[in-house]
Structures are given as C-alpha cells and as structure tokens.
TrEMBL record:
Start and end residues of each ELP1 N-terminal second beta-propeller domain: 366-561
The protein's name: Elongator complex protein 1
Keywords of this entry: Cytoplasm, tRNA processing
One Pfam family matching this protein: Beta-prop_ELP1_1st
InterPro entries recorded: Beta-prop_ELP1_1st (IPR056164), Beta-prop_ELP1_2nd (IPR056165), Elp1 (IPR006849), WD40/YVTN_repeat-like_dom_sf (IPR015943)
Top-level taxonomic group: Eukaryota
Pathway: tRNA modification; 5-methoxycarbonylmethyl-2-thiouridine-tRNA biosynthesis
Occurrences of domain ELP1 first N-terminal beta-propeller (ranges): 13-331
Family: Belongs to the ELP1/IKA1 family.
MF-aspect GO terms: tRNA binding
Lineage, opening ranks: Eukaryota, Metazoa, Ecdysozoa, Arthropoda, Chelicerata
One term under GO cellular component: cytosol
GO BP annotations, alphabetical order: tRNA wobble base 5-methoxycarbonylmethyl-2-thiouridinylation
Length: 562
C-alpha cells in the first residue's frame, strides 16, 4: 500500500506491466509514477497548456514507445516519454474529447468528441476516419423480419392476453445518466462498441463498429439503459446496467445488439448508482462498483460477481465508508490482481484466488450472505442449486472445512463455526448447527483448528482459532515477517505445523508450540521455493518427516522442491 497527497484526486490510471509501474494523472494535471516492486512514488512532470481549464479523462501506457498517452477534455492529446521524463502535444481535436479507448494491440485509438463524433486514429495519431454517432442507420447487418407477426398477434402465455395491448410506461433513460459517451473494445480488436445518448429519442444506444469504424449493429431500445459498458474479454457479451421502476439490473447485450441475459443487483430501485463495470482479463470476474444514494454518508460498495451454470453469484463485497475509489483497473497480466486508488491518496492492490474445499461430498457455494450447501453423498444437486442454505446477516468472505466442522468468515469480522450432526434427518440431509458451549459435541475429542491470515502494515498476521471439546474458543495471533514483501497465497496445517506459501514462491513453516516462523527446507536442507504460482497446499507425514505437496496453477505437482 502506498499513500501520498499527490494521489488525492486521481483522474486516470494506466499500468506498465513490463516493469510493474503505475502511471497516474491527478486533478492538478501532474503525472505520477508508482513502482509496485519497491512501493516508491515519483512525481514525473506537470502538464501545462495555454488554455483556461482542462483535465485528463484517459491515459494509456504504450509499451513499444515507452510513453504514456494522455487525453484531455479540451481535445489536446499529450504524450509523456517515460525514458526522458518529458512530454509534448501531438494533436488536438477542436470539439473536445469525452471518451477514449485503445485496441488491445494498441494499433488503433477510438475517440468520441463532445458533439458525439467518432474519430479513429492509428498509433501515429493520424486520423483514419470520422463518423457521426447521431445516425438513424442500423448498420451493415440490419435485422430482417421473418413475418412472425406483430407483438399484438403473438402468444404471450396464459393470463397475459391483455399485455399485448397494454403499453408499459418506463422512463427511457436513467436518472443517473450523465449523457457522456463510452467506448469498449473486444479483446481481439476486431470490434468495438460505443454507448451514446440519443437526444432525438431520449434513449441510450449501443452501436457495434468494425475495426475500420464501419457500423455493424445498433442495439434495441432498452428502457433505463445506463452509460457504462464493458465488453467481455472472451468476446461473448457486452455488460451494462439498466434501471427499471421495480429493479436495478446488470444486463448483457450480444454483438448483434440484442439483450441476452441479466441479473438483479441487491438494491432497491433508484437507491444505487453504478460507477464502474470491469471484467477481469480471464472473463471470470465481473467487478461492479457503486454507491447508495439515499443517505449522504452511504458507503461505496465494491462487488465481485461470478457466473456458475448460468447463475450469477455475489462472491465478495467490500464497503468503503470513509474513503471512496477514484480510479480502478484490473491487471492485464495477473487476472486476479486489482489496482485501486482511493480519494485519501492511498494506492491498494487486491488479489484473490479461487479456492475449492469440500467435506466428504459436501460442497459449499458463496452467494451474497448465503452459504449454499449440496451433499453429493445423498443426491447429485449441482450448483447453483443446493440442498439447503446457511444465511447470515452480512456478506461471506471465506469458508473452510475441518473434519466434521465448518468455519465461515464474514465481512464484519465475525467467524461463525458449525458442526455437522451425526444423526440423519427425515429429509435425508445432515444438518449443520452453530458451535456454542451448549451444543458442542461433548463425546467428540476432535479439536477444531482454524487459521485466518491478513496483512497489516507490511506484517502478515496469522490468527489461530481453536475450539476445544468444551466449546471454549481460543485465539492466538502469530506475526509472519520475512525478507520478502510476501502476501499469503495458500496455507495448510498438520498437527502443530502450518505451511504457508508466499507470493514470492517461498514456503514458510510456522510452529504453533514455539511460535517460530522459518523457511521450509527439504531433506537436503534447501529452502523450498516453487518456480510457478501454487494455489493449493497440503501437508502429509512420511515416516517421521512432514513434507509439502503443492499444485501450481499450471497443474504441476510438487513434493517439496521435487
């Protein structure tokens, strides 16, 4: 984490993935760099132009030129050279700029001016073509009627006859719409989509363009469609948001402009403003950031959604009460890494990993504040369907099984412990109940061990929770400090030994009795270091020695260093 007054009002951010350096432009038009490897911050230069007022709306690191492209609202295009720490103006659009997007190969740049003109440039900033977004044309692939009749003559289902003639009165645009255009490229660079507000119809429209800026499709008119768009990297769908009188949704639109799927946000209508929609580069996570609008001090909310068998589940939810996110970007190399800038000048990196855990056929799936359990020993009920659910008052962060016990970590810091009942219920399912002093299994000699790791002020704290046979809960905190700036990727425990894998690939050994943390060594007394990122770790005992078995993300299996 990095903090500085220079980051108090960041307007845009870009990443040099080769050197792990972030470049940012703040409200004072200062270019700032952050070296992620050593957490150092440098002010590179001030952008000074001969105009009254201007601010950056987009910046993009150009890897071949080792330069940062910066677009200003006045229409000026500035290029900052990271090798010489100098900048220059390479062009200017007289109508100003409201949106910019680079193709993934950085060969083409699409800009939308303040009067909704689309400008296509190459990487040398030569204008290739210019189009007007305010067009009545559908595109090259206009839909053809197959004579299925009008809506009034189509079958609408039992009890829905009157709906054929009734006209629903929805507002054509959202109250949160700022009327600003947006651009998003498909990852292969063959198509891009623009979202612009058509003042003639009072609808926001999506237009899909080819790589050479030829209009292909125009979306159907969707009531309450909002401005933000994000094309899924896998190329299938375009994500946006839609506000209706009875619900607020994230909707998906196909390349042909037709709506294809949706899921509802867990907020009442007109109470939540969507501020960011971003896909991770592996298309696994859809990031939604917004804030509730009913109260002045409402927190900003960051949500991570994932699709399982066509069902969208809220996997993680974070609330920012005192500070808000002003800039956010997924890392283009590490799909699980998120870069965040807060309005108090803090730069934070979030990294997640997918974890699969089960208990003798019992599988748990997180969805908001519900833990959905499926017992595959009794019946095959694949997620998102489930046998039964454990409901909590706040968002679930993580779960883990230990023998016949279950631990659930909540976002408010609460850890809920459950034990699996030995008796069978009438419906055939085993039941989970909360572990307390009254209902703890007295005849059981098993001790519940739970470990939770978090990083605070560059020190990783390993919290050890123990529930003994009387139901009493003991908490021990062990500090893990190494000579590398590690964060924990995976953990495993056997007896009094805990194995911890750091982001650098080192395997650490924590002894619960001695409270000593040291590097794990193999049978040749060499430090165990994994060359590939390992997300699964298990400890086993071979004769009198505890060894580690690790599975890397490229499916390589390691036994210590072997």
């Amino acid at each position: 984490m990095v903090s500085s007054d220079l980051l108090l009002a960041v307007k845009c951010m870009t990443i040099d993935t080769d050197l792990d350096v972030l470049y940012l432009v703040n409200a004072d038009n200062e270019v700032i760099s952050i070296d992620v490897n050593n957490s150092s911050l440098t002010k590179c230069c001030d952008i000074c132009l001969d105009v009254a007022s201007y601010e950056a709306i987009c910046c993009e690191f150009m890897s071949e030129e080792r330069s940062v492209f910066i677009a200003l609202t006045t229409g000026h295009i500035v290029v900052f050279n990271t090798m010489t720490n100098t900048y220059g103006t390479v062009g200017c659009l007289s109508d100003g700029i409201q949106a910019v997007a680079f193709s993934l190969d950085q060969e083409l740049i699409v800009l939308v001016t303040q009067n909704n003109s689309l400008v296509l440039m190459n990487k040398l900033f030569d204008v290739l073509t210019q189009k007007d977004l305010n067009t009545d044309e559908f595109g090259c692939h206009e839909l053809v009627s197959v004579n299925w009749g009008s809506k009034a003559t189509q079958f609408h289902g039992e009890g829905q006859r009157d709906s054929r003639t009734q006209q629903q009165t929805f507002k054509s645009y959202s109250d949160f719409d700022d009327k600003i255009s947006q651009i998003s490229w498909r990852s292969d660079g063959l198509y891009f989509v623009t979202s612009f507000f058509d003042h003639k119809t009072n609808y926001r429209k999506l237009q899909v363009w080819s790589r050479d800026a030829v209009l292909q499709y125009t979306s159907e008119c969707l009531d309450g469609l909002e401005a933000l768009i994000a094309w899924k990297p896998s190329g299938a769908l375009i994500a946006s948001s839609q506000l209706l009188p009875n619900k607020h949704m994230i909707v998906f639109v196909e390349k042909n402009g037709l709506k294809h799927g949706e899921f509802e946000l867990p907020f009442t209508p007109n109470s939540f403003k969507v501020q960011h929609i971003l896909w991770s580069n592996d298309s696994q996570i859809l990031l939604i950031i917004g804030s509730e609008t009913r109260e002045q001090l409402s927190p900003q909310i960051m949500m991570l959604w994932r699709q399982t068998n066509y069902k969208w589940d809220l996997k993680q939810r974070y609330e920012f009460k005192d500070n808000t996110i002003v800039a956010v970007n997924w890392d283009s190399i590490d799909a699980s890494l998120l870069h965040v800038i807060l309005n108090n000048g803090q730069y934070i990196r979030y990294r997640w990993k997918w974890s699969t855990d089960d208990l003798k056929g019992m599988v748990a799936l997180i969805d908001k504040n519900h833990l959905k359990l499926s017992d595959f020993e009794c019946s095959v009920i694949p997620p998102p369907f489930y046998s039964y659910s454990l409901d909590f008052k706040s968002q679930i962060l993580e779960t883990c099984f230990s023998k016949n016990k279950l631990a659930v970590v909540l976002i408010d810091g609460t850890i809920a412990l459950f034990e699996k009942s030995a008796k069978k219920e009438t419906n055939g399912w085993n039941d989970f109940f909360a572990i307390t002093l009254e209902n703890m299994t007295k005849e059981s000699e098993e001790v519940f061990n739970c470990f939770y790791a978090n990083k605070c002020e560059d020190i990783t704290k390993l919290t050890h929770l123990t529930v003994d046979e009387t139901g009493l809960l003991y908490v021990k905190v062990l500090d893990i400090t190494t000579d590398t700036d590690d964060h924990i990727i995976a953990m495993s425990c056997l007896k009094d030994t805990i194995g911890v894998i750091g982001s650098s690939g080192h395997l650490l050994k924590a002894n619960l009795k001695d409270k000593v943390v040291d590097y794990w060594t193999d049978r040749c007394d060499k430090k165990v270091v994994f060359p590939n990122r390992c997300s699964r770790l298990e400890l086993i005992q071979i004769e009198n020695r505890i060894v580690s078995i690790c599975l890397s993300e490229d499916h390589t299996l390691y036994l210590d260093n072997e």
